[in-house]
Amino acid sequence: MSLTQLARTKVQELTPYQSARRIGGQGHIWLNANEAADSGQFSLNCERLNRYPECQPPQVIERYAAYAGVNPERVLVSRGGDEGIELLIRTFCEPGSDRILITSPTYGMYAISAETNGVQVVDVPLTQARQPDFDGIIARLDEVKIVFLCSPNNPTGDLVDKAGLVRLLKAAQDKALVVVDEAYIEFCPAHSQVDLLNDYNNLVIIRTLSKAFGLAGIRCGFTLASPEVIGLLLKVIAPYPVAEPVAQIAAQALSEQGLLLMRQRVEDINRLKAGLAEQLQKHAQVQEVFAPNGNYLLVRFTPGSEIFARMSRAGIILRDFATRPGLADCIRITIGSRAEMDAVLDVLHKEQ
Question: Are 343 and 314 in contact, with CB atoms under 8 Å apart?
Fold first, then answer.
C-alpha cells in the first residue's frame, strides 16, 4: 500500500484551496490576495519567547471585545478567520453524516474545511440579485448544521440583507448555526450584523486582522458568538493557537493608535476604490463592476482572459474567477497603493 493510499479517501480526492500564494505567478504588483499595501510598524518584547503563550491572550481578547462592541466572553481569537471556520465545523459537525450549507459563489474555504473534515456540503446558490436565497436555505435547514454567509461576499462584494438574515436566524433556532463571515466589514462598518448577537444565540460572526488592519502575515482572526458557543470551541481549539509575537502585534493593532491607523487605511482604500470604479465604468471592455464593499473590486471584462493576460505581461497579478458559476470573464482586483492602481489603469488605457 502506498502512503497516498494510507490517507483518508476524502483527502486523496480533495482539491486543495487555491490560495493566491499557492497559485503564484510572475510579477511585481500583487493584487490577487486582498492584502493591504502596508502593515505599519510594531515592536516586539522577546523576554517571554521561552514560555508557551496564553491560549486566549487576555489583552487581545479585551481589546477586540471593546473594538467590536461585545463582552469578552463572546470573543475567541484564532490563527486567522480560517481556523475559526474550521473550528466551527469540527465542533458542531459529525464526520460522515452532517452537512454545512454555502451560497456560491463565495469564499472557498467553507467547502474545503468541510470536505477535509469529512463533512458534506449543500450549495444553495445566490439569487440573480446576488443575495442568499433565504427561502431556499430555510427549506433545507433540517439537512444542515451550519449555514455560512459572507458579508461583504468574497468575491462579489455584496452585503447580506439584514431582514433576510433575521428571518433565517429565527427559522434556524435550535436547528443550525448561522455564520456571517465579516472579514471585510471594516470597509463598510455600518453593515455589521454584530448587534444581532444579543438576540440570536445561533449567530456566529467571523472577523480578521488580515484585511483592513494590514496584518495578513500574522494570521490572527476572531470568532464572535454566544458564551456557550465560545465555550464549546475552546474545547476543540489547539492549546497554543496564538503565538506570543502575534499576540503582541495584535494588541498593538487594537490599541487606540492602532485603530486610528486602521481607519485611516480604510479611508484611503475606499477613496482609491471609488476612483478605480469610476475609471473602470468608462472602459469599453468593462461589462460590470460589482458591489464595492470590500478592499477589492470584482469586474466583468470583455473578454476577461485577454485583460488578465495583459495585466500579467505587465507584471500585475490579479485573481481570475472565470471558472466560478455565474462569474464568466470576472477578475478580482485588490485595492493596493495609488501607484498600483495607476499601473492597472495604465495597462487598460494603453491598449484600449
Answer: yes
| pLDDT of the residue at 351 | 61
SS3 content of the chain, % helix, strand, coil (to 5): 45, 15, 40
- pTM (predicted TM-score): 0.94
d(CA 57, CA 288): 44
Separation CA 300–CA 326 (nearest Å): 11
Phi-psi region of 130 (alpha: psi -120 to 50; beta: other; left: phi over 0): left
Here the cell at position 16 is 486543495
**Which residues lie below 8 Å from residue 282, measured CB to CB, with a gap of 6+?**
none
| C-alpha distances out from residue 338 to 72, 187, 254, 275, 280, Å | 38, 17, 26, 10, 15
pLDDT score at 20: 60
Q: In terms of DSSP H, where are the helices of the chain?
A: 3-6, 9-13, 20-23, 58-68, 80-92, 109-116, 134-138, 162-172, 227-236, 244-253, 256-281, 304-313, 338-350
| Mean local confidence (pLDDT), 101-119 | 96
Q: CA 181 → CA 9, 106, 199, distances in Å? A: 29, 10, 18
DSSP code of residue 314? T
Residue 229 to residue 252: CA distance in whole angstroms: 27
